[in-house]
Every structure is written in structure tokens, then in C-alpha cells.
Amino acid sequence: MMKYKKAMENLSFSILGDSYSTYKGWIPEEYECWYSDEGNDKFNNVSSVEDTWWSLLAKESKMTLLINNSYSGSTICNTGYLGVDYTDRSFITRMKKDFGDNKTCSTQSDIIFIFGGTNDSWADAPIGTLKYSNWLEKDFKEVLPSFCYMVNYLKINNPNARVINIVNTDLKDEITKGMESASKYYSIENLVLSDVDKENGHPNKNGMIQIKDQVLKRLILSQ
């Protein structure tokens, strides 16, 4: 196993995520954050950045975190809670800042982790159907066509990056299956998590370790 970890040492990774990947001071200042040194208004025992799945991953694999583009409460599509327009925070809007037309970082990541869909599921955003081209503005209000658009965009603008979609536990079945199908179509990796301990819907310390372990296992097995 050590030789596989050695091969990862000089790699960089980035995250396009939601609250599960936030930590105050490690995401853009204007983005909503769930985890912080001060904790949050709901009980959860993650109180150090070192407890996060991505910090644990960086420490164990020796990879470097390049960009953490994560926004608490964000949806992949432009429809948020109570049908509110989330265009300002959606994955398909934010991805352009760091991974596309408006990228702020000149260095491209070796690995891009997508970790979303939780809020789309919780918010009862319209799911829609898989659509692989000719997207219309109305498609971006729905989860599955937006997911397809996102993956297509990331691949075009980051041709040398390894894109890995992380699927949370307990999502709506249509979203989980749709992500799996779209990932196969676009030839990206799709990691469906299992057995993640949570408090108030968010990974606690043990849950973060469980996520890290499953991500690291995927990285090692595919070396």
C-alpha cells in the first residue's frame, strides 16, 4: 500500500462541494460555511479543520489541496430550498470560477472531487432527466440535466484532471442512479459512499474518517 501512496505524493486535488466539505477559512470568504473552529448552531463534534475528510485525505496521501470551492446549502442545479433561485451559489455557477471560463487559479488540479446532490435531494429540487447536450436555461433548474452539464463542462475545461464524483448516502434514489448513469456516459469515476456516521445530517468526526477511507481506497485501488 505504501508504494501506491508514494505515487500520490506530488498530486494536487480540488473540491467542488457543499457543506460537507466546508470549513471556515478554507473556502472563499463570501461562501456560506457549516464547519468552523467555533462549531455551529447545531451539535456536531467536528471542530478542527484536521477533522475534515479532505484534510485527513491530504495528510494521509501527501497530496496537496489546491482549491476548495464548497458552499454550505448549495445545490447542483439552480433550484434551492422552497424553490428559491440558487443560481448565485449552485455548482454549475461556481464551477466556472475555479474550473472553467473564469478560473482564478492558473494551475490545474490533478484530481477534482465533485461532492454534491445532498441539498438537491433535501430541497426537493426538480430532478428532471439525463440530458447530454443542447441544454436550455430551463434544464438548469433540474438536478440531472444540471449534473450532466457540470460533468461535461469540467471535463472540457480540465482535460487532464481525474474527475471523481462522490455520492452521499441517503440521497433520493433517482439522483443516485442518475449520477451513476451520467458518470458512466462521461467516463468519470462515481464513488457511492456507505456507512457514514452523521450528526444533524452532517458527517461527525468518525463520519469524516469513513469518507476519507472510502475515497483513499478508491484512489489506491485505481493506481
From TrEMBL:
One of its GO terms (molecular function) is hydrolase activity. InterPro entries: Lipase_GDSL_lke, SGNH_hydro_sf. It holds the Pfam family Lipase_GDSL_lke. It comes from the Bacteria. Keywords: Hydrolase. The keyword Endoplasmic reticulum does not apply. This is GDSL-like Lipase/Acylhydrolase. It comes from Clostridium collagenovorans DSM 3089.
